[in-house]
Fold LysR family transcriptional regulator.
Amino acid sequence: MSPKIDLRHLRVLHTLLQESSVSRAAVQLGLSQPAISATLRQLRETFNDPLLVRSGSAMVATERGQDIFASVERVLGDIDLLLAPPGDFDPSLSERRIRIIAYFGLGSLVIPPLIQAIHAASPLARVEIIQPGTPEQIKQQLHDGDIDLVISSRQDPYQNLRFAPLIECDLACAVADSHPFADRNQLTLEEYLSLDHISPSAAAVVAGSPIDGRLLELGTPRNVVATVPEFALARQIVPQSSLVLTTARPFAEEMAANLPVTVLEAPPELGQMHAWLLWHEKSHHSPFGHWLRKTVRQVAQSTLRPQGAAPAA
């Protein structure tokens, strides 16, 4: 019996041979690296060839892999042409409801220009920014078509969804100008843990918070004395308190530009803040989905000037 291969495997194979990298293929396809590695093992068995081999610090396609790449590219091109929906998405004529969940600390900076950009391109559409629920609820909403796109600071709770990195930026600590540590340039981890904190993440979901989740990995939880439902409220509390708000640097700098707040470097152990775009497989190839993800990326990149971002297909 001849080996079988499905369309998903063909797309993974094409991307692997194109990128010569498991990690880059994972980003391009919105899949995890373990999933890509597992598929590569299956493909090697199917074609009885390594397909990609190590050459120094890089991966290169074998001769068989190079031959397969050209054939797969032609096949996928024909399939995409066959499956393409009639006509492109024209935002200027669309009257659809655009529903986005924005669950990350930079929402107050990105959402206003995003709404403006969507309205400018699609004046007949209606934009709804929806309060997030649990990861399971969000996955179900995407599956049911109740929401179109998710912007989140965590990707790992959303397995089996398409994803792509949106932004990457430094973390910073915002404190009142009157705070005893306001004269510091950077907090050490020991100093950071000795202070009282305010967080927009409820205690029940700290493991999913990019900051508290990282601290749990380090085995050093911080002392969160106040939680609020949104960053907009936290920014009003910090100038009048002795609490520390840890957030993405662009948000902290926006606070300092408008409020009596000082920005301190966060402990390097906390790493960086990431934001991700998440969407369902069924909207991956839709012209509307492409347009919406492209619009969000453009707005985020122009607003925040991220240090690194990768395109979402």
